[in-house]
Amino acid sequence: MAEIVTKESPFTPGRPVPIEYFVARIKEIERLERAIKQTSSGRNENIFITGERGIGKSSLAGFVRYLAEKKNFIGSHCFLGGVRDLEGMIRVIFQRILQQITDKSLFDRLKQIFSKYIKRITLFDIEVEFTKDSSELRTLLDNFLPVLRKIHETVKDVKQGIILILDDLNGITDVPEFSQFLKSFVDELATSNNSLPLLLILVGIPERRDDLIKHQPSVARIFDIVDLPPMSKDESTQFFKIMFDKQGISIDQEAISLMIELSGGFPMLMHEVGDAVFWVNTDNRIDGKDAVGGILEAAKNVGKKYLDPQIYRAIGSETYRTILRKISELPLGTTFQRKKILEKITNDERKTFDNFLQRIKKLGIICETEQRGEYRFINQLYHLYVGLEAFGAKKEKKHPNRTS
Ligand SMILES: Nc1ncnc2c1ncn2[C@@H]1O[C@H](COP(=O)(O)OP(=O)(O)OP(=O)(O)O)[C@@H](O)[C@H]1O
Ligand SMILES: [Mg+2]
User: Fold this and answer.
1) Burial, 105: exposed, middle or buried (Cβ in 10 Å; 0-12, 13-18, 19+)?
2) CATH value at residue 244
3) Within 10 A of 165 (CB to CB), how many other CB atoms are there?
4) Rounded CA gap, 277 and 298, in Å?
5) How many Å lie between the centroid of ligand 2 and the Cα of residue 172?
6) Which letter, b or e, does each residue of 199-214 get, where b requires 16 or more Cβ atoms within 10 Å of its Cβ?
7) Closest Cα partner for 152 from 113, 185, 197?
8) What is the number of domains present in the chain?
9) Tens digit of pLDDT for each residue in 275-334?
10) Of 276, 305, 334, which marks where a domain is finished?
């Protein structure tokens, strides 16, 4: 009887990658290491990590925090997703700083600074809960720089600097006061004649940076940009090799090529593909057949997670769906011309075609190539999913009673 081996998938689709599985990004890491070095010599550094959704911004930020902590920084990675005002932000920042300290004696020292604001600490200091009173939080906000200095003063015998990462900025960049706050804070620090070893990192898609600049143009020059591109073929190869290798699984060249091709250097898709292939595989060797099976499965997952809520629910129109199905009949990876598609569709579809193109472009499903009037799917898994959906719809039409 074959031995049943229960293994855990090393892939983490949709979550920042654990440090031990982080790969590539050498150039960006070098830039950020430089920032760590500058900061520890006493200078404040401000960086904006940007790039498309799912490109690996939070993972890189997490990795930098890890590197900074190794260089004796105290660090905090704050996710501001649900935060809509500066009082909420300041609460998250200081609460996280305390929560993320692992050293008990440091924690006890820092706790003193915030004793007025801490409402509750659970057993073993696992959870620290700050006040929600907005005037108390306002006081903390108005004294942001002095409070950070106090933190630095309190820990400087053992710590070199502070790394503060503000991630998931989508709610807070809408607030004009946030841009003003950043500008005044950085200016105040620069003109104070009293340096503070603070590495401030903001993390967000390019549109969030645009929001900030719209409210306060000087923000553009405050932050140095680290812009994450898709991973190269070599980096993607390294990624799949390392991930499977750690599980004692080997991969054929053909399988690797397929996985790289279909995930197009997007770490988010690489994890989806890797995870699906991992579960399709039954021995310790991944061949082309496993890769194809996994990729189809991944396309379904990706479609359900990222496309369904956006297109199939948001675009209620049946006309839009049929146009999309027709486009998906093109071979994977090819571009399409607006003109050519117009020839393929009905009169009714033609009337809404330009609106349709605008809409799915805005939703991040297709993009225009360098050539005007020419488009392609943002990635091949989206294309594959739309194709699978079209195939299902065709089957459904032929055999309406079948459920699968
Ligand atoms: N350097 C890397 N090595 C391995 N996996 C990575 C790397 N970077 C990102 N990933 C993986 O890619 C996926 C997306 O990463 P992450 O969440 O960091 O992206 P993001 O740019 O912050 O996305 P969002 O815009 O949605 O916040 C995750 O599954 C993560 O584990
Ligand atoms: Mg992120």
Assistant:
1) exposed
2) 1.10.8
3) 24
4) 8
5) 15
6) bbbbbbbeebbebbbe
7) 197
8) 3
9) 999 999 999 999 999 999 999 999 888 888 888 777 766 666 788 888 988 998 888 888
10) 305
Point out the ligand 1 atom lying closest to the alpha carbon of residue 53.
Answer: 25
Which residues line ligand 1 at a C-beta cut-off of 6 Å? 12-17, 21-25, 51, 53-59, 205, 239, 267-268, 271
- The span from the first CA to the last CA of the chain, in angstroms, equals 32
CB 119 within 8 A of CB 206: no
Q: Which residues have their alpha-adjacent CB atom under 5 A from ion ligand 2?
A: 58
Residue 344 is part of which domain span?
315-398
If you search the block for the tokens 């807070």, which residue do you land on? 172
Mark out the alpha helices in 264-403 (DSSP H runs). Answer: 267-280, 288-302, 318-328, 338-344, 347-362, 380-398
**CA 58, chain centre distance (Å):** 5
Extract the tokens encoding 97: 């700083």
Q: Do the bridges between strand 285-286 and strand 250-251 make them parallel or antiparallel, or are there none, so unpaired? A: parallel
Q: Which ligand is nearest to the CA of 21?
A: 1
DSSP 8-state assignment for residue 169 = -
Phi, psi of 250 (to 5 degrees): -100, 160
Mutate to test the pocket of ligand 1, among 268, 273, 310 (most ligand atoms within 8 A of CB): 268
Strand (E) positions, 138-247?
161-167, 198-204, 224-227
Q: Is 109 exposed, middle or buried (0-12, 13-18, 19+ CB in 10 A)?
A: middle
Q: Residue of the nearest CA to atom 13 in ligand 1?
A: 268
**The pair of three-digit structure tokens given for residue 210, joined into one six-digit string:** 């645009």
Q: Which of 189, 212, 227 corresponds to the end of one domain?
A: 227
| pLDDT-derived band at 119, boundaries 50, 70, 90 | confident
Q: Quick one: 290 exposed, middle or buried, by C-beta within 10 A (0-12, 13-18, 19+)?
A: buried
**If you measure from the C-alpha of residue 338 to the centroid of ligand 2, how many angstroms do you get, rounded to a whole number?**
33
- Tell me how far apart the alpha carbons of residues 338 and 241 are, in angstroms, rounded to a whole number: 39
pLDDT in tens, 185-202: 999 999 998 999 999 999
Cα–Cα distance measured from residue 134 to residue 87, given in angstroms and rounded to the nearest whole number: 6
Task: Choose one of 12, 52, 53, 59 to mutate for the ligand 1 pocket test, by most ligand atoms within 8 angstroms of C-beta.
Answer: 59
Where residue 377 sits, what CATH number does that domain have?
1.10.10.10
What letter does residue 310 receive in the DSSP assignment?
I
The overall pTM is greater than 0.85: yes
Distance from the CA of 207 to the center of ligand 2, in angstroms? 14
